[in-house]
Specification:
The chain is mainly α and 124 residues long. It has two domains: 24-85, Orthogonal Bundle (Arc Repressor Mutant, subunit A); 91-124, no CATH class. It is built from seven helices and two strands; from the N terminus they run ααααββααα. The chain has helices at residues 13-21, 26-34, 40-46, 52-64, 86-89, 92-104, 106-118, and strands spanning 68-73, 79-84. Strands 1-2 form a two-stranded antiparallel ribbon.
């Protein structure tokens, strides 16, 4: 597993939340777990662009940051379910607000993102 060589800068709240939520799929994982998708296979279906390995690693980081918990059932094959901790649940209104902002600025953001991938700096 990747091991960071330098310590993160944690001088303000934005640094802290960035450190905890940094990762392409973490916000979506938190959202989908909140929506009731608990099993790794369910989360994989909700985020098909992510590899199982990456999802597992990011779920482990969320677990280490006490945002999600994991229940392992003693059955064969093993059954694993994730859940949001109270700490994780406290992030849901923040994630919801970010999603609403994205929806409100959908067209503009899509254009800007598309233009940045095309290499252009076109004005809107």
């Amino acid at each position: 597993m990747y091991e960071r060589k330098t310590l993160p800068n944690l001088s303000c709240g934005l640094d802290l939340i960035g450190e905890v939520l940094y990762g392409k799929w973490k916000i979506r994982l938190l959202w989908f777990i909140n929506e009731g998708y608990k099993r790794p296979s369910e989360l994989q279906r909700k985020i098909p662009g992510a590899s199982r390995r990456v999802l597992t690693a990011q779920l482990k980081e969320l677990e280490n940051h006490e945002l999600v918990g994991k229940v392992i059932y003693p059955v064969v094959p093993p059954k694993v379910e994730y859940y949001l901790t109270d700490f994780g649940k406290s992030l849901i209104p923040v994630i919801d607000a970010m999603g609403q902002w994205g929806d409100q600025h959908d067209e503009r953001l899509r254009t800007l993102i598309r233009n940045s991938h095309d290499g252009g700096n076109r004005n809107l």
